[in-house]
Inverse folding.
């Protein structure tokens, strides 16, 4: 009888241990533990310094709210964006965040996500019908800020090179504001507008600028470079410095650490507008939190404030 009793105890203990290791949700006095929600982060630009900064901040903000982040990068392949978003919808994620992505390229997928009850947020993207909201900087205001500073530096005359990337929704808005401001001046002429390649915008802009310098060797032929964001501004500045051209100034937008260091050192890059990327990520995470609580978002287009950076305040 003692042997049988001992065997019974061992079998019961084995069943108990098996039950503890089964990976099922634990039960609390309040009921079963809630399943962790997944937030998918989708972008074609993870190699970009600023996009990467936003994604990393989003991951941190999501983790602080006890949510799981799933990052998907299409590495500059815009055609692949739609199929990857379809995959995310099929996998039944709880929310999708588009980072630095034009939502107009994903209209059908955004509609499908809406039908499936999956909210779609933007972080430095555009906002279209079907999305929940987008957090960004006021791209029009930033472009006005940096362009007016540049035009003043140029004494409202000279020859301007434009380096941009219109497929990006934020850069498109900035370039459109430049277009508007150029219509108000008659003595600033566009030498060329060139599309910077992404990925690899610094190298792309450096090569483009090297070619432009070779084609425009006289001092008065080029006065300034307007870049839609910091990376092409950095590449253009490097080419100008290497060529020994002292009379060409460059401006960008984003406020990356490399750009600010170059402004401090007195390079051709003289100004940028610093975006608040952690602020954008926090805004999006807060709105996701509200939606998961069954509440309304605070707005469909929310802005994080930006600051003009020149040599006078770059060290502060």
């Amino acid at each position: 009888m003692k042997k049988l009793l001992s065997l019974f105890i061992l079998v019961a203990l084995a069943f108990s241990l098996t039950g503890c290791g089964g990976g099922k949700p634990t039960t609390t006095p309040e009921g079963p533990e809630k399943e962790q929600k997944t937030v998918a982060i989708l972008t074609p630009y993870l190699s970009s310094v600023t996009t990467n900064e936003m994604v990393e901040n989003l991951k941190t903000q999501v983790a602080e709210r006890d949510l799981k982040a799933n990052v998907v990068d299409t590495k500059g392949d815009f055609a692949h964006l739609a199929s990857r978003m379809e995959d995310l919808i099929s996998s039944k994620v709880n929310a999708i965040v588009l980072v630095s992505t034009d939502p107009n390229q994903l209209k059908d997928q955004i509609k499908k996500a809406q039908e499936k009850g999956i909210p779609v947020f933007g972080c430095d993207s555009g906002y279209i019908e079907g999305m929940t909201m987008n957090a960004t900087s006021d791209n029009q205001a930033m472009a006005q800020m940096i362009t007016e500073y540049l035009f003043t530096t140029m004494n409202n005359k000279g020859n301007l090179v434009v380096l941009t990337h219109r497929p990006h929704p934020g850069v498109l808005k900035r370039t459109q504001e430049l277009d508007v401001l150029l219509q108000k001046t008659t003595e600033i002429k566009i030498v060329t507008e060139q599309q910077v390649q992404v990925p690899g915008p610094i190298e792309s802009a450096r090569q483009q600028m090297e070619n432009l310098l070779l084609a425009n060797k006289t001092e008065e032929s080029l006065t300034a470079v307007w870049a839609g964001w910091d990376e092409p501004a950095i590449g253009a500045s490097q080419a100008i410095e290497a060529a020994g051209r002292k009379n060409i100034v460059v401006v960008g937008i984003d406020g990356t650490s490399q750009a600010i260091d170059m402004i401090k050192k007195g390079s051709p890059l003289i100004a940028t507008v610093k975006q608040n990327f952690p602020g954008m990520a926090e805004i999006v995470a807060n709105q996701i939190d509200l939606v998961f609580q069954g509440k309304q978002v605070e707005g469909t287009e929310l802005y994080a404030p930006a600051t003009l950076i020149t040599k006078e305040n770059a060290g502060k």
About this structure: The mean pLDDT is 90. The chain is about 45% helix and 20% strand. The first strand starts at residue 27 and ends at 28.
